[in-house]
Amino acid sequence: MPMVYLDHSATTPLDPEVLQAMMPYLTEEFGNASSVYGLGQRARQAIDEARDEVAAFYGVEAREVIFTSGGTEGDNFALRGVAYRNADRGRHVITSTIEHDAVLRTVESLERDGFEVTRLRVDRLGLVDPDALQAALRPDTVLVSIMHANNEVGTIEPIADLVAVTHEHSDAYFHTDAVQSTGKIATRMDELGVDLLSMSAHKLHGPKGVGCLVVRSGVRIEPLMLGGGHERNRRAGTENVAGIVGLAKAVSIAHRDMAENVGHLTSLRDRLLEGVRDRIPATEITGHPTKRLPHHASFLFQGVEGESLLLQLDMDGIAASSGSACTSGSLEPSHVILALGYPRERALGSLRLSVGKDNVDTDVDLVLERLPDMVARLRAMAPISAA
Length: 387
Ligand SMILES: *Cc1c(COP(=O)(O)O)cnc(C)c1O
What we know:
Radius of gyration: 21 Å
CATH architecture of the largest domain: 3-Layer(aba) Sandwich
CATH class of the largest domain: Alpha Beta
Largest sheet: 7 strands, mixed
Helix content: 40-55%
Number of strands: 14
Number of domains: 2
Strand content: 5-15%
CATH superfamily of the largest domain: Type I PLP-dependent aspartate aminotransferase-like (Major domain)
Distance between the termini: 37 Å
Bound molecules: pyridoxal-5'-phosphate
CATH topology of the largest domain: Aspartate Aminotransferase, domain 2
């Protein structure tokens, strides 16, 4: 049974073109980019070219791009690096309640170290309000971190407005987690106005374990990784040459094919959103109806546990996600769905379907054919009250 993969917000398959670009650096071109001989210098050159491509994509200078091990490291680096380096100016950080755990767990660690954190609430559609941000800014605020687009409900935040408010009313830096948005919507930093941006290659058909943090010149940031002088003394460690080459290739393909891909993704997504809503009663679309990632569809089904639905879908060869997590034996709803204001029982009924460029209409047809019966069967078993 062929698998229908509808979980591209979790990870994506490696693009064959990306693999091809990486192959030499996984085989004969194995040099250390810090070595003086030709083999090392060819690795250095590959990294330099990759950095130029990524910089052009985000509209920044090459020296502003720092390669990392992925989105989690980028978020940790931005938050801890800026907070600790600027603690002499203040110890207040602002974020939102719907951030990825890489941000939320990191701000908790900052609180344990004596920083104060304000978590801005979002509305029912998942939007952060620029006026609420303005009210939260203080003279001692050193950093605002708001994600560009949410991984669980697909909502795109008004980043340019949030940045404008931040820079007009404070000296704080603005960081955005652009892991979900990169390659899907416009992410040029000169247009968004953000000071720091983190991304990850494996969410856009690149390899796992590599990403970058873009840090605009003049931003005071402390390194997390200490050791050699790699990445201009900002991130020590022998460079992941093949990964960096793959990241740049993935970014350039996403850039090249963006218009075509977005049209395709949007049409699949809209067929899912409308098809599921029309075929299954007591269903709600979560996140914003229009300010939404082009590949992202998410739902709440009353009286159903999303986790049970995932198992049913898996039996039919369909890979999807729910956002709930099984912690210490009990099912915990997604913090994002709860932050949107849904009660716990309802929040457990969440399902995310995220499409990719290789999906086709018949993948959506299969979901629209199977899902209504699955939901009806689970509702008949009534694991949770339909009230
Ligand atoms: C996947 C994801 C991350 C984590 O990135 P990794 O490279 O997997 O560590 C961070 N933020 C968001 C919004 C994500 O979707």
